[in-house]
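queue> pop job 88
queue> type: inverse folding (structure -> sequence)
queue> payload:
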């Protein structure tokens, strides 16, 4: 309970800070203020119904059908009301307000109609759903902060270091272009629906909460939220926009050739020269280092390992497809992906250590993962030319270091979750005559 309260205070402080910064410093819409307005006005596409689904893990099946029906009914009424007054609604923004109404309603029910453990359980469910919703809004605001406060980007450093890995973004970018439109449609869908995949896995992990009246000690949502909380802070230390922006025409309505170092991606490789920070526009997020899409897909992969075969297959597919999308669309360098893998495994191990109690093995691995992650950032910043000019040395070294973190995580989890020893067959006994 203390952990939940501490997390709640920390999140509340972050939300208040972002509200103030968005209004006074950026002149941008406040994330929570906008979310409150979306209780009536057409919401932007987002995980509102995903948050409702997470909240409903604490409800009985009858209550779930009631909550879902009520949310859809509210959205239908609001849709008719908007149409009646002539409010134009963007595509994909028809529904969502009803889910927010229901979650807020259950928060009121928890405070006024529940007591003791039942109140705590319902508030945890509501908090889980609202955190998913708030994460999307605050994430958008934070990305704008990175663009406004970091006018210089470090893409030339990563482009030079990426030579050590064989410039995978350029290679996969050509493959995706050659297999268009099949590859672009499939990978684009996978990349955009990462949150949906996470909600599906989380719902499976939390399927017994209503029956057991408690949450499991560790689940995917916790890892997802911590990755999303810590990762954006690294953006401020290592601002990077990505190959399609720094070496191409940009994407998603931001960037442009006029801001690019050179218009090369994915047809020609950038030359290795002394890198330096370069200016970029004030709109494109500096959200490449580390690749949080990679980190989140690694978390999905990890949390599907103890699931049925179809979900294990889906987790593997999502990881591979996400890696292909991040590179193939030019959103990330190979160096970003390596950092994302180390980042995710370190956070996952730290959260599990926090739950089960810190032991020597857990402390050692988390410290090792932290040191490796910091060493990657320092090497990308201080040794990019040396890395690019000696790929036969630094390429295998980067892969070896990443493999060592993966191997260490596997050893740690085997230590924590030893497989059940197979039952010994009874020795044949001589028959009595």
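queue> result:
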């Amino acid at each position: 309970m203390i952990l939940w309260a501490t997390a709640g205070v920390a999140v509340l402080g972050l939300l208040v800070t972002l509200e103030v910064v968005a209004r006074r410093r950026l002149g941008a819409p406040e994330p929570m203020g906008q979310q409150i307005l979306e209780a009536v006005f057409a919401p932007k596409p987002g995980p509102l119904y995903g948050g409702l689904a997470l909240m409903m893990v604490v409800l009985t099946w009858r209550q779930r059908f009631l909550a879902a029906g009520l949310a859809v009914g509210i959205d239908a009424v609001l849709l008719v009301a908007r149409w009646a007054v002539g409010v134009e609604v963007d595509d994909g923004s028809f529904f969502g307000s009803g889910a927010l109404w229901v979650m807020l309603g259950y928060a009121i029910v928890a405070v006024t109609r529940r007591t003791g453990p039942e109140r705590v359980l319902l508030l945890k469910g509501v908090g889980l759903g609202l955190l998913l919703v708030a994460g999307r809004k605050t994430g958008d605001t934070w990305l704008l902060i990175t663009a406004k406060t970091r006018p210089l980007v470090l893409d030339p450093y990563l482009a030079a270091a990426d030579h050590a890995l064989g410039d995978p973004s350029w290679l996969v970018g050509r493959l995706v272009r050659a297999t268009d439109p099949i590859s672009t449609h499939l990978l684009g869908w996978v990349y955009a629906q990462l949150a949906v995949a996470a909600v599906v896995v989380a719902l499976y992990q939390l399927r017994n909460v209503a029956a057991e009246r408690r949450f499991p000690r560790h689940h995917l949502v916790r890892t997802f939220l911590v990755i999303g909380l810590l990762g954006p802070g690294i953006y401020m230390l290592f601002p990077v926009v990505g190959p399609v922006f720094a070496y191409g025409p940009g994407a998603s309505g931001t960037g442009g050739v006029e801001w690019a170092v050179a218009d090369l991606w994915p047809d020609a490789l950038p030359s290795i020269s002394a890198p330096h920070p370069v200016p970029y526009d004030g709109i494109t997020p500096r959200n490449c280092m580390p690749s949080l899409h990679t980190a989140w897909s690694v978390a999905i992969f990890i949390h599907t390992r103890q699931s049925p075969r179809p979900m294990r297959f889906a987790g593997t597919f999502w990881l591979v497809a996400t890696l292909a999308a991040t590179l193939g669309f030019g959103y990330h360098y190979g160096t970003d992906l390596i950092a994302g893998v180390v980042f995710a495994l370190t956070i996952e191990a730290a959260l599990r250590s926090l739950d089960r109690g810190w032991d020597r093995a857990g402390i050692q691995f988390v410290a090792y993962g932290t040191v490796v992650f910091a060493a990657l950032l320092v090497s990308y910043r201080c040794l990019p030319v040396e890395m690019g000019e000696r790929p036969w040395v630094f390429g295998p070294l980067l892969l070896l270091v990443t493999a060592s973190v993966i191997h260490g995580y596997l050893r740690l989890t085997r230590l924590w979750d030893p497989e059940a020893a197979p039952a010994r067959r009874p020795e044949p006994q001589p028959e009595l005559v």
